Fold this protein.
Amino acid sequence: MELRQLRHFVVLAEEMHFGRAAKRLYMTQPALSTSVMRLEEELQVRLFDRDSKTMAITPVGTAMLVRAKEIVWLSDRLEQFGKAMGAGKAGVIDLGFTGTLLYRGLSEILNRFSSNYPAIELSVREISSQVQLDMVRAGRLDAAFVNSPVPPAGLASLPLFEERFVACLPASHPLSTARRIDVRDLQRDVFVMFSRDPSPAYYDHVVALCAAAGFEPKVRVAATQVLSIVALVASGLGVSLVPESVSKAGIAGVVYVPLRGVDKQPSAFLAWNPQRDVPGLQALVDIVEEIANLNRP
């Protein structure tokens, strides 16, 4: 039994006339008759009662028609899906993200993508930056939205936006009312820092900012998420340096103070493995680039 035979059977059952059915199928009436007869022989059932003047579908044919229509419909959908995947307009993309990016534009990216490409499913998981990058390199994740001030090594990447690092201080800190401070003004404070394992680029960047100011930060607590760092600062456990967009999280008890001499630079990237062909991924890259360009001054 072949799919084309089922398609012939469905069309003939809809038309109940060999001439009209053959015309819809772009084939001759004898070829259609032969196809249906062979299907009946293979199934060992009679699908139609017919003579020289009339034809009617049999009870067995009526029951078979329901399943045949399902199979033909699924075949058509599969063909459409395959063509859409080939054109990058359908598929499944497995994405990772870090939680703070929800406050920094990720929601806009995902909403825009889902609106423009409803046939592409996004499977999105919250994972630390370094683990995401390891998974992308191993082929266990299609793309990663990561916190990093530098492009991830060995992967294709696109900066999401540029921003400055600022001082994150408890509201009770003596410098909390200052309009601007130097990084070296914090050399006597204890720091709440990024743990290096889940986010080595962020950790190294903060250490480099302190080193440029002439000191090594005294670390009291290390955390794996930026929002955890801010919450710990709010509790009075130390100070930190964080991307300025973190202020959008609205955590009470902290103040964000600009730093002199600290320029804007990328703080987050979309990263992917250019050696893997993931249907729909280029469409995501295009949308990220479009939004990133709109956000640049």
User: Anything to note?
Assistant: Residues 3-86 form a domain with the Arc Repressor Mutant, subunit A fold (CATH 1.10.10.10). The chain has a mean pLDDT of 89. The radius of gyration is 31 Å. Residues 59-86 form the longest helix (28 residues).
